[in-house]
Amino acid sequence: MSSEGKEQHDLSPRDSAEGNDLSSPSGIHLELQRESSTDFKQFETNDQCRPYPRILIERQEKSNTNFKQFVIKKLQKNCQCNPTKAKNMILGFLPVLQWLPKYDLKKNILGDVMSGLIVGILLVPQSIAYSLLAGQEPVYGLYTSFFASIIYFLLGTSRHISVGIFGILCLMIGETVDRELQKAGYDNAHSAPSLGMVSNGSTLLNQTSDRICDKSCYAIMVGTTVTFMAGVYQVAMGFFQVGFVSVYLSDALLSGFVTGASFTILTSQAKYLLGLNLPRSNGVGSLITTWIHIFRNIRETNPCDLITSLLCLLVLLPTKELNEHFKSKLKAPIPVELVVVVAATLASHFGKLHETYNSSVAGHIPTGFMPPRVPEWNLIPSVAVDAIAISIIGFAITVSLSEMFAKKHGYTVRANQEMYAIGFCNIIPSFFHCFTTSAALAKTLVKESTGCQTQLSGVVTALVLLLVLLVIAPLFYSLQKSVLGVITIVNLRGALRKFRDLPKMWSISRMDTVIWFVTMLSSALLSTEIGLLVGVCFSMFCVILRTQKPKISLLGLVEGSEVFESLSAYKNLQTKPGIKIFRFVAPLYYINKECFKSALYKQTVNPVLIKAAWKKAAKRKVKEEVVTLGGIQDEVSVQLSHDSLELNTIVIDCSAIQFLDTAGIHTLKEVRRDYEAIGIQVLLAQCNPSVRDSLTKGEYCQKEEENLLFYSVYEAMAFAEASKNQKGICVPNGLSLSSD
């Protein structure tokens, strides 16, 4: 390093690099005392130009690595196999092999058994109810929850989340199933065309099969195929480490999407509460169409189903509220759903409600397991697009919940492994007549509050479901569908309560609130898939909008420190004559380049107008037009030029400029050229490495002019003060900006 570098002062760039405001009551002088090796007073006006301290940093020399050698080295590292690496790969893929041998039986077993038992009891009625939402038979919901609990026990890294059936995904599955049923020619009369026949003459299924597939059989074919594809997408995202996709699903977007989808779920279940036999509406505006059908057929309401629904609501809602209100005092929540299901089943069976009042019931639920069956490959082209949205929502909710509870309880989860886990929770069960699963917040909260310690509680949950599948399932034959609809609707309370949070959200971030409303309304009024797409696009547009018109301000120095803050936000800030410090809080790129220029010219002086005024004054002097009006204009022009020379330096604080594109670099060049033309130097301060590299590659300044880039605003102002003390204005590269 040069001798100049050895004698440099230690100037720490503590000038609000992140743009954080200093909280201070209005009108109170900001005092941030700090010892400094450099006294600012040394830059007071002198007859001589004093040397100014500079921060000098040497760059690391980058090794010129050949791309071919780099690729070969990576492949050798990743493709070589040895016993240690193989063991680590197996343990990484199956986390159960790591934590299960270390399981503390005395400490954890009681909490795991209790939480697993309670979640299993809650899952029985919910699995049956959500099967209707997915357009499937009740037994398939029980299969889904059983297999998901077992597989996540083996592959998951979160100790607390409950993976299983989830209402929003069931709704999305149900919409796809209904669409494919209509395309295949199934009507409401449960027609049973042959596997090789469809109404439009095209071939959808295996023509070599002689079996007859009824509506429920075809529905689960579609459901398992969508589930298989969603799992494949999730595993692929884990393999290629593209979990960053979830960052586009902000909390406001996800909350709005869930709330909007909850309205669709509520609408789809309303017909069961009234006992109406209506076709399920699909496509854009299905929510409005469904309500139109309900009101047109309101006279056909089944009184038995309506009374049953009201009674169940009167029991479930207050008990759920009590569970939530006294959750800190209750060792376990009251399993009111299971109590309602048992009571309603007994009442329906002994009261013969189906035979007497034609009340719709769940029907026969077989015991045991059906033979495994591969998904229907011919359906993949029809459902591949639907599976994309389902897979993204599934893994986004799972990863966010797992990270949230891991942070709360002081352990870590591997997001990539979570994607593998949820992906295989969909791929493997799709061969066993199951549909899509993910983590669910409500059941996860119950699991945590009842003492869950490890993933072993999932095995206990699976054993409860296995008992139901092997023994108890047929006893739910007389269970009314209206009861299942009520259970589904009551479980939407959490999503619908998000409206309570809107005032607080509005006070924190109006933009997030608008994103929430747009996503919620589009998900409810259009469709879930379109709503998700609209929400993502609108939130990205909001990000662009924020950078298009960012915050700009002139800065002043906090007395006794090297900190600079906004003159419009704080009082008692110091400014130096002839120097203005400008901050632009956004990346500088093609969208906001004009905003940057106009804001800078407005806050300082407009060099284009100054130069034009000079030219006009010069022409009139040459022509010697001694007219009163002309004289006044000359006086104005001369005065304008005189005022402009009082400003000799503009410092641009680049701490909040994350990146530059070619348009941004060109804008900075243009700004610098325009100001230098009227005798004002432009200095850039606190450029991050990315911005510095862009400036270097864009040839913003020559090598001998690199000292126009400063590591702190304070350093830039010190340079401007020192250069101003010379006769004229001292600028590197021999440029003189004197006012002569």
Automatic annotation (TrEMBL):
The chain crosses the membrane at residues 109-130, 150-173, 217-240, 252-274, 379-399, 419-442, 454-477, 514-545. GO terms for cellular component: apical plasma membrane. Pfam families: STAS (PF01740), Sulfate_transp (PF00916). Residues 569-720 form the STAS domain. GO terms for molecular function: secondary active sulfate transmembrane transporter activity. It comes from the Eukaryota. It catalyses: iodide(in) + chloride(out) = iodide(out) + chloride(in); bromide(in) + chloride(out) = bromide(out) + chloride(in); sulfate(out) + 2 chloride(in) = sulfate(in) + 2 chloride(out); oxalate(out) + 2 chloride(in) = oxalate(in) + 2 chloride(out). Its main location: membrane. Residues 1-32 are annotated as: Disordered. Belongs to the SLC26A/SulP transporter (TC 2.A.53) family. This is Sulfate transporter. It comes from Callithrix jacchus. The lineage of its organism: Eukaryota, Metazoa, Chordata, Craniata, Vertebrata.
